[in-house]
Task: structure prediction
Amino acid sequence: MHSPEPDCVHELLGHVPLLADPEFAEFSQEIGLASLGVSDDEITKLSTLYWFTVEFGLCKEPDGIKAYGAGLLSSYGELEHALSDVPERRPFEPFSTAVEPYQDQNYQSVYFVADSFEDAKIKFRQYTATMKRPFAVHYNTDTQTIDVLDTAEKLLYRFRTLKAQVDHLYNAMTILTNLRTA
Ligand SMILES: [Fe+2]
Result:
């Protein structure tokens, strides 16, 4: 019950709405950034994490477990299956999720449930911190390019940029506080 390829339904109903959510978009981008400079084995694990989150992820909500994976949102058949009693549902833990085998010929037999996007991001960052690579990267939103943080000068520049952003936030907070007490 997936729509036939080229699958515009999957892209438009599955991926696009979620990418409009800043929390989710950041999570999706972090998977891509984590792949830069790592081994093929690590990339395979990242692909598996992508599969079980961006494509077939479930997430806890106050009123129950909801689907956020594009492969579920664009398949009413698999959406029903994922939320039924048939498949296994396990907590999203990147270290074990990354090595879970999967296939793309039938509905999944196991799904991973995140506590929230924020929690998934925190756990994912803890996972990527253990990956071996010769440099760290940062996505520069000003230039829309990827900065490779491989020298002390580049790190210092990032710290200065970060400090400027914190200063702006502090100023905004001060203005808000003054408005409330005025
Ligand atoms: Fe997809």
About this structure: Residues 47 and 111 are 15 Å apart (CA to CA). The domain at 8-132 is CATH 1.10.800.10 (Phenylalanine Hydroxylase). The mean pLDDT is 92.
